[in-house]
Design brief:
Elements: E1 6-10, H1 14-22, H2 25-45, E2 50-57, H3 65-88, E3 91-96, H4 103-115, E4 122-130, H5 132-145, H6 152-158, E5 169-172, E6 191-194, H7 204-216
Parallel strand pairs: 1-2, 1-5, 2-4, 3-4, 5-6
Helix pairs in contact: 1-2, 2-3, 3-4, 5-6
Bound molecules: 3-methylbut-3-enyl trihydrogen diphosphate (IPE) (2 copies) and magnesium ion.
């Protein structure tokens, strides 16, 4: 059975779900957040140590302002209402992606990271304004400034995911088979599951089904 330390998820399909059932994309984002809470609980139950959630990409700024604002308001309210609870559950929150949001949200994100920084039950890496290409450029620039050599280790150490093991498992919901600029370096050897269901329809049962499948895979890492 494969060990499972780190799950990464591209939570896709909120907009389509919202339009289909509530006639509003934003309603889909709201429903999607409920699923995030369920999956966090299940991840703790399974004793998985890292959960990386793709919540907003560097490309998502191209969406209508109303949707972008709604997403950040949702996140803001979530943190205000839930950070205490996350902290009590010994969850550590880390943001990956450059924090270029409103002053209020930047502050709230910094506060949430600091407050939970000593926790070690589960680390949630929330990918916000995250893009893998921009992350890699940032890493190369840091290496250049320090005049270090370009090596696998030095790249790992200068990414925003430094000290986080690479994902063992990537799940993308929403019936689309692409990576959309997510963790391109870190996913080099991850097991990838593309799930037909839209994110708001995804549930613990689906998650457990995928984990069970993952456990049975023969992971070679180039060996035989
Ligand atoms: C993913 O769902 C959530 C974000 C990108 C914020 P989408 O909003 O992309 O949903 P679809 O793919 O349009 O249905
Ligand atoms: C990927 O979903 C980003 C997140 C889930 C946050 P998108 O819906 O933005 O991806 P594309 O644009 O369809 O590839
Ligand atoms: Mg999408």
């Amino acid at each position: 059975m494969n060990p499972l330390k780190h799950v990464a998820i591209i939570m896709d399909g909120n907009g389509r779900w919202g339009l289909k059932y509530k006639n509003s994309r934003n309603a889909g984002h709201k429903a999607g957040l409920k699923v995030v809470e369920k999956i966090i609980k299940e991840t703790i139950k399974k004793e998985i140590k890292y959960l990386t959630l793709y919540a907003f990409s560097t490309e998502n700024w191209k969406r209508p302002k109303n949707e972008v604002n709604y997403l950040f308001k949702l996140l803001e309210n979530f943190l205000i209402n839930k950070i205490e609870d996350l902290n009590n559950q010994k969850i550590k929150l880390k943001i990956i992606g450059y924090k270029k949001f409103s002053k209020k949200l930047n502050k709230l994100l910094n506060y949430s990271e600091k407050k939970t920084s000593k926790n070690s039950k589960l680390q949630i890496n929330l990918a916000l304004n995250y893009g893998s290409k921009s992350e890699l450029i940032g890493a190369f620039k840091k290496i250049r400034v320090k005049k270090f050599k370009i090596s696998e280790e030095n790249i790992d150490r200068n990414l925003q995911t430094k000290n986080i093991p690479d994902p063992d498992l990537l799940i993308r919901t929403g019936n689309t088979k692409r990576l959309s600029n997510f963790l391109l370096w870190q996913l080099a050897y991850s097991e990838i599951f593309f799930e037909k269901k839209l994110w708001p329809a995804f549930n613990e049962k689906d998650y457990n089904r995928i984990i069970k499948e993952y456990r049975k895979i023969k992971r070679n890492f180039g060996k035989i």
